[in-house]
Design a protein that fits this description.
The protein is mainly α and about 325 residues long. It is built from 10 helices and no strands. Keywords: Membrane, Peroxisome, Repeat, Transmembrane, Transmembrane helix, Transport.
């Protein structure tokens, strides 16, 4: 089995674990980002959770989880595969420079975005489906099961019936712009990792250990992954809002003439706050997910390599 395939499988498995742990925050962010009411007061994460549980029960926080797990497993597997394949061609035993990290990230991110967009359209549609239902139906707060939910297959059929197959690539414009998010994330991670390893290796050699080479602990990887995702998400969040609205098929969003046009429309109609709806839950979720993903992918990859080596030994 090639190294790129092992990285891909490890990335997919780590992504499933990370998303399962943080999915309620993804759900809350998606709803907040798609909400377009002018002057709507942004709820705290606590009040948002309480409101969803009151209306839909605890499992309401996991609406769209199945398609999200499918999406993250597929997305991470494809991303890590293309990332590792590209890095193997560029790196050749040396540390990656910043331009090389950016190039590799662009290749992996673009391929992943084009292939995975239909899955995220389904996930976003599932996560916001009950918003319309709530607007049209008088819900009994003591009967959360009155909320209508669609399965992945039902959601796919609904999207096809209403908008056709092209609807599965709604939001592909801002999604491709958002390729810069993982590019920033992995570039920042690689450069922070390189700087930390170089510093620690220099200290070890200064202490008289001539052949010493520093390694990162799980704690180091967790922290660096969190910092890298914090930078990436903070820088690209307004485009995440535009993409979410387009993927949800929001009527107003479908009138955006372009990604930039969407940003300007939101700014004009909702102010700067509209560009950052749901940013709190998104930042917390993204940072935790990325940190868990970096550590999980590393550990699963190492265990898979050991298992493969043992198989060939015996």
């Amino acid at each position: 089995m090639s190294d790129s395939v092992v990285h891909a499988v490890a990335g997919g498995a780590a992504g499933i674990v990370a998303i399962t742990c943080t999915y309620p925050l993804i759900f809350l962010f998606t709803r907040a980002a798609v909400e377009t009411k002018n002057g709507a007061k942004t709820q705290s994460i606590y009040h948002s959770v309480a409101d969803v549980i009151k209306r839909e029960g605890p499992w309401g926080l996991y609406s769209g989880l199945s398609s999200s797990l499918l999406g993250i497993a597929f997305t991470n597997s494809v991303y890590y595969y293309f990332y590792e394949r590209s890095r193997a061609l560029v790196q050749k035993g040396k540390l990656l420079s910043t331009p090389e990290s950016i190039l590799i990230g662009l290749i992996a991110g673009s391929a992943t975005t084009i292939l995975s967009n239909p899955i995220w359209v389904v996930q976003t549609s599932q996560a916001v489906a009950t918003m319309k239902w709530e607007a049209e139906t008088s819900l009994d707060p003591f009967n959360p099961r009155s909320v209508k939910k669609l399965s992945i297959v039902q959601t796919v059929k609904s999207i096809l019936a209403k908008d056709g197959i092209r609807a599965f690539w709604r939001g592909i414009g801002p999604a491709l712009v958002l390729v810069i998010n993982p590019v920033l994330q992995y570039t920042v991670f690689e450069q922070l990792k390189n700087a930390l390893l170089a510093r620690r290796t220099a200290k070890l050699r200064a202490a008289g250990i001539a052949a010493a080479v520093a390694v990162l602990s799980d704690g180091d990887v967790f922290l660096l992954g969190a910092l890298a995702k914090l930078v990436a998400t903070s820088a690209t969040y307004p485009y995440i809002v535009v993409k979410s609205r387009l993927q949800a098929g929001h009527a107003r969003a479908l009138g955006y003439k372009s990604s930039l046009g969407g940003l300007l429309t939101i700014l004009d109609e909702e102010g700067v706050g509209g560009l950052y709806k749901g940013v709190g839950s998104k930042l917390v979720q993204s940072v935790l997910t990325a940190a868990m993903l970096f550590v999980g992918q590393r550990r699963i990859y190492e265990m898979a390599k050991i298992a493969i080596s043992a198989k060939y030994v015996f």
